[in-house]
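Throughout our pipeline, every protein is held as a single compact record rather than as scattered files. The remainder of this section carries one protein's record, kept here as part of the documentation.

===
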Amino acid sequence: MTLHSASVHLVVVVFLSADCILSLGSSKCVPRDFGHGSVVCECNSTYCDSVGSVRLPPVGLFSSYLSSRAGSRMEQTLGHSQANSTGAGLRLTIEKQQKYQMIRGFGGAMTDAAAINILSLSAGAQEQLLRQYFSDDGIGYSIVRVPMASCDFSTRLYTYADTPADYNLDGFTLAPEDVNMKIPLLQRAQTMSPQPLSLLASAWSAPSWMKTNGALTGKGSLKGQPGGKEYKTWAHYYIRFLEEYAKYNLTFWALTTGNEPTAGLMTNYSFQALGFTPEQQRDWVAMDLGPALHASSFPHTHIIILDDNRLLLPHWAKVVLSDVQSGRYIHGVAVHWYMDRLIPADISLGTTHHLYPEYYLIGTEACAGWSPLDRGVKLGSWDRAEQYAHDIIEDLNQYVVGWTDWNLALDLTGGPNWVKNFVDSPVIVDAKQDVFYKQPTFYSMAHFSKFLWEGSQRVGLSASTQTKLEYSAFIRPDQSVVLIILNRSPSEVEFEVWDPAVGFLQATAPAHSLLTLAWNTH
């Protein structure tokens, strides 16, 4: 009997091993080259490449994950640490005693457009796409930004309270886009995710009847003054949104004070906007939004200010956070990446952190293809993957706790978008073929989101000599170490990493590549 049981057990192990080998072999990228410098990975209802669930090797070994212009996509290899220096020309030293910000997470936005594109696929392909972002086999997205009512990535203009003079918001109701598309997809994503998703709400515009210009678009602010009925009603609108989503078991970690408040101060702005000066935002939070949220069923939901380009810092933060009444309700400062090149990260982000270290900094919107000089979808663009990785590393090295991409999925044109403000996305859907393409930017996100768990802490990292490499290092909650390296140069760079806890790690960053190294320390 004992022998028989053992033989059965042996057969099971053999079959499991064969199955594992098959699944590993079938998780590679199916490359498609559209002539933009690198490849996309094609996925359908039955197949998609996946990095899988990451388990680090024991002490003495380290895992390396490589993506490159040459076509590698999260390609895993194992290396050995060694007691002595490898003699490489460049040494990166982990400085664990230097501790910085804790990571919150990474993610993208469930816009109307993203939901439309995901739901345009067959049930199997939808499942694959959501798994790529949110499951343990996927890339570990933990933040989802949710527009409150319509934005440009909608097919129509709407708010949740379009009846004029409805100051009590008696007619407040979620849109079909919420109930039939975004909410079901968010529920499915939450079911797949190994941890609770951090939902982040942002509004683009108040109802037109509350606004000075009587329209959702263009230059316009709330009527009246902070403390007045429009400002009070606008704060109440936020609470009503949270209440309606809570009915579907979706609770929000945070909300922002409004998407890009400076857009609503611009003449002839083409899509939804609501203008706020920093002084108006300060007073609205102090007199209306802060007290309303505190008195609601959601007192623990964070309020994050700005939600606009970082070039507005540190001025915006000084105006809002220096005020005791508004500052006590606020948790963080949200930045977008557009026009980042116009102001150095240390002057904007770094200065803001040092002035107000008790408030976190977080990236809440970024996309490629937004510039008139480089517009729309480019399938397989490696340059855009490098733009993402460069910005994320720069942000992380200046105290940012997370980085949120824009649309989770768009179509081949970069839409739908009612004002034709087409951009790119890490996932592009071709509904006619029932396939989706994972762009190089998807893998850029993966090198961070897959490995930097919530609670990971950035630590010091020093280079022995000047280098073209860009890098950032973290200690995770289990004390394992993650090091992310970007090489935007046309030549490979050999280097070694010295972690006093484990020794020297030898590695190579190929030309135009992104590399994540990870290892256990005990």
Notes: Confidence is low (pLDDT under 50) at residues 1-26. The chain has eleven helices and 22 strands. The longest strand covers residues 91-102.
